[in-house]
Design brief:
Keywords: Nucleus, Repressor, Transcription, Transcription regulation. It is found in: Nucleus. Transcriptional repressor that regulates multiple aspects of plant growth and development. By secondary structure, the chain is mainly α. The protein has one domain (2-56). 68% of the residues lie in helices and 0% in strands. The protein has three helices and no strands. The protein is globular.
Length: 60
């Protein structure tokens, strides 16, 4: 998941939310249900890191 986000050069969660949401849905649909909690935790971690970096480096 991180590789996909890095390849897409995503740094703005609000601007790229639709892509991020679709990526999450794809991962959930392609993987067994017993891995969904891990996928969601990783997704949440990535979103928090993206939000944190955008807050510490606001674009003017």
């Amino acid at each position: 998941m991180r590789e996909m986000i890095k390849a897409r050069n995503i740094s703005d969660v609000k601007k790229d939310w639709e892509f991020l949401h679709e990526l999450l849905i794809c991962y959930l649909s392609l993987n067994p249900k017993n891995t969904h909690d891990i996928i969601i935790r990783v997704f949440a971690d990535i979103v928090v890191r993206l939000l944190s970096s955008s807050l510490s480096n606001p674009r003017i």
